[in-house]
Design goal:
heterodimer; A: alpha/beta; FAD/NAD(P)-binding domain; 3 domains; five-stranded parallel β-sheet; 8 helices; 28 strands; globular; B: alpha+beta; N-terminal domain of TfIIb; CPE0013-like fold; five-stranded mixed β-sheet; three-stranded antiparallel β-sheet
Chain lengths: 419, 121
């Protein structure tokens, strides 16, 4: 394989990386290379054996492996080069990529453009400050998912799940069907972190208790986890004295959020947005470093895989255009999070083309109006932090923008009505 | 008269509805929904609650202990646990192609268990 004339190098081959590489190839890039640290294409899709993938992208209800299989076949058919079991260790601001594997040793390449598609990872116990001992039996939900669905190990017999993210709820169902007793899903907030669909089909279906406004305050056990203390929390998320209860369990799963994985981005000098944890990007998904693009969960954590692939396709298409030195719009309007908006992606847009914005709210509200400056407004019955907002704006709407910055906000919330 | 609570999953609102059921198992009243589609959903979910079952089965291939599988159509919710137990006794022998039937007519539900990934020799 010739590594000297790569047009587009894609880092990672999950639902973002494969979609970006395919799109780059279709856009005319001759030499597209995927660098993947695992032994096969697909990233985390292999362990996501549940369905719900591709409802929008393929208009079919697929499992993770099936969704990945479709992209992997296309990667093969299009003749996209793939380096498996290859770990990228460094990217420099001038797009030098260093990678290692046990066949070629250290590889150095200089692609014309790069797509970052490293995805995200889970928050772990160290980021939670749960007091107590440090016994075996505490896993992130995703690690347990890999054990159960890929390696063939059951992590324990009696399980408590802390956090109500989608992976945690999906593992509650999966473990129950494998004969494990799931004692409770414990959530510190007054509402679940994941999708309602998963609350119903993973928890209600199997009568698994959901404890909202509760948290784990103590870990018990020396060599193996023996129990956790669960307590109610007040409005400031502080445990309420006297509500503590010990629950016997040998396993605690953590489903407490995901963080975009951006060590390589930092090395490349890419500016990160503290609100998303991912690179600051424009509407072509170009980062602040020329020729380095990014898409999928490395940019911000999505709730649907379909949006991951769509976003990465934008990055792939423009990485291909950059590689053949096509000019990009220099005009830039900054998007600013207004009332009850946590973040917006992309962080800046050109006003000359249609664009889709993704945004997340801070708090749940009902009967509100979503506003983009004075060019767009839409009534929404409910907004929730766990469900991403998707806003399509046309170039004719965008041409009405006068200022260099525009605010996106949630307005006119009414109080929740009874009944 | 009994009450049954069903959460609608049609949209992010997640309406918490209550159904009142008479002795003949007929729905006499639904409250808590906010749209026509939601009413239809909870009625259907009460009468015929079905789910796609996804799982894994053991393989006869060394180095690849599990093959992911699913039902090719939804089955009754009440059959999920028994179906999962059935799959514990099924083994996949390579080669298997994605979509291939592994176990036809699971528990007489009319649904087949199909592979959701390839398993090569």
């Amino acid at each position: 394989m010739k590594l000297s004339d790569i047009d587009v190098a894609v880092i990672g081959s999950g639902p973002a990386g494969m979609a970006a590489a395919i799109r780059a190839k279709e856009e005319g890039a001759e030499h597209v290379l995927i660098l993947e640290r695992q032994e096969q294409l697909g990233g985390l899709l292999h362990q996501c054996v549940h369905n719900g993938f591709g409802l929008f992208y393929f208009e079919q209800d697929l499992t993770g492996p099936e969704y990945g299989h479709r992209f992997a076949e296309k990667v093969k058919d299009l003749g996209i080069q793939v380096l498996l079991e290859t770990m990228v260790t460094q990217i420099s601001p001038d797009r030098q990529v260093t990678a290692v594997n046990n066949r070629e040793g250290v590889l150095r390449l200089k692609p014309k453009s790069i797509v970052l598609a490293m995805g995200c990872r889970e928050r772990s116990r160290g980021q939670l400050n749960v007091p107590g001992t440090r016994p075996a039996g505490i896993f992130t939900a995703g690690t347990a998912q890999r054990f159960v669905n890929v390696e063939g190990w059951i992590p324990g017999k009696k399980v408590v799940i802390l956090g109500s993210g989608d992976i945690g709820m999906i593992m509650a169902r999966r473990l129950t069907l494998e004969g494990v007793e799931v004692k409770a899903v414990v959530e510190i907030l007054p509402y679940i972190g994941g999708l309602t669909r998963n609350e119903v089909q993973c928890l209600h279906d199997f009568h698994i208790p959901l404890l909202l406004e509760h948290t784990v305050t103590q870990i018990h056990g020396q060599t193996r986890l023996e129990a956790v203390t669960i307590a109610k929390v007040n409005k400031d998320k502080k445990p309420v004295n006297g509500t503590e209860q010990m629950t016997e369990c040998d396993t605690l799963l953590l489903s407490v959020g995901l963080i975009p994985e951006n060590e390589l981005s930092r090395m490349a000098g890419v500016a990160l947005d503290p609100l998303t944890g991912g690179p600051v990007v424009n509407q072509w998904r170009e980062t602040t470093v020329s020729g380095i693009f990014a898409g999928g969960n490395v940019v911000h954590v999505h709730d649907l895989v379909d949006n991951v692939s769509w976003e990465a396709e934008i990055a792939g298409a423009w990485a291909a255009k950059f590689a053949r030195k096509e000019e990009m719009e220099k005009e830039k309007k900054i998007l600013k999070p207004g009332r009850n908006i946590r973040y917006i992606v992309p962080q800046s847009i050109s006003a000359q083309h249609d664009v889709t914005l993704y945004a997340r709210v801070k708090d749940m509200e009902e009967n509100v109006t979503l506003k983009v400056g004075d060019i767009f407004s839409e009534s929404l019955r409910v907004v929730k932090p766990g469900e991403m907002l998707k806003i399509d704006l046309s170039h004719s709407q965008l041409r009405q923008l006068k200022d260099d910055a525009v605010e996106l906000s949630i307005e006119g919330a009414k109080r929740r009505q009874n009944g | 008269m009994v009450e049954e609570k069903i959460v609608c999953i049609g949209c992010p609102l997640g309406c918490r509805t209550t159904l009142r059921i008479n002795e003949q198992h007929e729905v006499v009243e639904i409250t808590g929904y906010k749209c026509k589609e939601g009413r239809q959903y909870v009625l259907e979910e009460y009468r015929n609650p079905v789910r796609i079952l996804t799982s894994t089965i053991l393989t006869e291939k060394s180095g690849r202990p599990l093959l992911p599988v699913r039902t090719n159509r939804p089955i009754l919710k009440s059959k999920l646990k028994e179906a999962a137990l059935t799959l514990a006794r099924v083994k996949a022998r390579p080669p298997v192609k994605v979509g291939q039937v592994i176990l036809p007519n699971l528990l007489n539900t009319g649904a087949d268990i199909i592979a959701t990934d390839d398993l090569f020799d």
